Amino acid sequence: MAFSSSDRTPAKPSSKAAGRAPKVAYQCSDCGWETGKWVGRCGECQAWGTVVERSAPRSRVQAGPVTAPARPIGEVPIEDSQARSSGVPELDRVLGGGLVPGAAILLAGEPGVGKSTLLLEVAAQTARLRHRVLYVTGEESAAQVRMRADRTGGIFPELYLAAETDLGAVLGHVEEVKPTLLVIDSVQTISAGDVDGVPGGVTQVKEVSAALIRMAKLRNITLVIIGHVTKDGSIAGPRVLEHLVDVVLQFEGERTSRLRMVRAVKNRYGPVDEVGCFDLSATGIVAITDPTGLFLDARHGPVPGTCVAVSMEGRRPLLSEVQALVTHSPNERPRRTCSGVDHARVALILAVLQQHAGIRLHAHDVFVSSVGGARLTEPSNDAAIALAIVSAYLGRPLGRDIVAIGELGLSGELRRVRDLGARLAEAGRMGFRQAFMPAETPRSAGQSKVLDGLRVVEVDHVRRALDLLGLQREDPSSRGDTGRPFTLH
Asked: Is 29 among the annotated ligand-binding positions?
């Protein structure tokens, strides 16, 4: 029996002909993490109830006109991308030379650490060098920023100020002012009217940042964006923000200290191991070109439980004083309290001293702290921490002109660290005359040499260092002898 073509059931259209349905994904509204199915807890930031549905239709992009023809890399001009000074030498040091035209810089830090004060100083110093600057504030009024600029001496004709929270208005100010440096304070306060989401949300931050960066690249403007941080210290907003920018700077500092440090976490134009130091006060922020003296106590006489360490902050050696206090504990579990030093490293040092140097501290409370708000996280500070603890335990001071450098191994050996030459040179410049350092070879252990007026003693084991300093393993009842300071024999 034959059938006509009209009796046949119509065939279903193929997926290619009908087009694929939009792919539905889920995204965290806090950090931008994406997943193919809904979950109650974000897999990136571990926040509950922040994963929402997002429709992401696919689009086919065809070839279009190019903005500029491709050329051999050797023919690309670089004159317009030369870094220029920001007027703040410590910031130029971290950036690798200065502000690069067309670069996007993200400055992140905790609330109240001084981000706005630092960038207002950068804007003022750049304007002082006759470069036009536009400072856009979304958190304060223009009058409030003007008052802070009056207090810090940052009033210059080339510094323009605008208080805006709309992205379109910000781009309009850029068209009118035509700056060479644009500062946005902060990106979480700027919103785009045609983008869904609240200001500071993932979608808004992503779109606003992308628009500002496109504008900066197109007009060869240096863009500096202030970003907030979360409770755990990471940069707030989507992780894609850190990938969009060229430089990510971390602004750090303790609320109880005037010292502030700028670290480069990402830098496409320079090193990422440099640190800039600043002094934040009521009159503004000032760069500190020689911060070593901030971490050394100004007292004159030696006291038990102190030793000087030489750590590296980026490429810069810094001398920091370590203080220790050891007291007999009335508790079954003695206390171990640390400030400015790594608690895990101190626990390791205490175990090594007890096992390999005969210093019994299992019944004593131990307190270890750094001076001046310095953070000593390098393993090269182990030797100084160990000597400070033993000095406090025996109640006898070390000499004021002694520094100790070296990492402490689990078997009590002192291991070499990087940049020993720079560390010793900085110690000699600061007036220290004796230094302990790890031995280069087993044969050189215990030998001493003089380098630029600094007597250097090579030590292979912590017990050898204690013997050279005259730190005898005494009975605890004999502690309290605060006679002559220890000196090298």
From this structure: no
| 233 labeled binding residue | no
pTM: 0.74
Q: Is 431 annotated as a binding residue?
A: no
Q: CATH number of 294-478: 3.40.50.620, 3.30.230.10, 3.30.980.10, 3.30.460.80?
A: 3.30.230.10
HEC string of the chain equals CCCCHHHCCCCCCCHHHHCCCCEEEEEECCCCCEECCCCCECCCCCCECCEEEEEECCCCCCCCCCCCCCCCHHHCCCHHHCCECCCCHHHHHHHCCCECCCCEEEEEECCCCCHHHHHHHHHHHHHHCCCCEEEEECCCCHHHHHHHHHHHCCCCCCEEEEECCEHHHHHHHHHHHCCCEEEEECHHHCECCCCCCCCCCHHHHHHHHHHHHHHHHHHCCEEEEEECECCCCCECCCCHHHHHCCEEEEEECCCCCCEEEEEEEEECCCCCCCEEEEEEECCEEEECCCHHHHHCCCCCCCCECEEEEEEEECCEEEEEEEEEEEEECCCCCCCEEEECECHHHHHHHHHHHHHHCCCCCCCEEEEEEECCCCCECCHHHHHHHHHHHHHHHHCCEECCCEEECCEECCCCEEECCCCHHHHHHHHHHCCCCEEEEECCCHHHCCCEEEECCEEEEEECEHHHHHHHCCCCCCCHHHCCCCCCCECCC
53 annotated as belonging to a binding site for a ligand: no
116 known ligand binder: yes
Rounded mean pLDDT for each run of 10 residues along the chain, 489 residues in total:
47 47 69 85 85 68 83 84 89 92 92 91 94 94 93 93 94 95 92 83 88 94 89 65 90 81 90 86 84 68 87 86 93 92 94 92 93 85 95 88 93 92 90 89 74 86 87 47 43
- The annotation status of 109 as a binding-site residue, yes or no, is yes
Question: Domain residues of the chain, as ranges?
Answer: 23-56, 82-288, 294-478
32 marked as binding residue: no
The CATH architecture one would assign to domain 82-288 is 3-Layer(aba) Sandwich (3.40)
Q: Is 100 annotated as a binding residue?
A: no
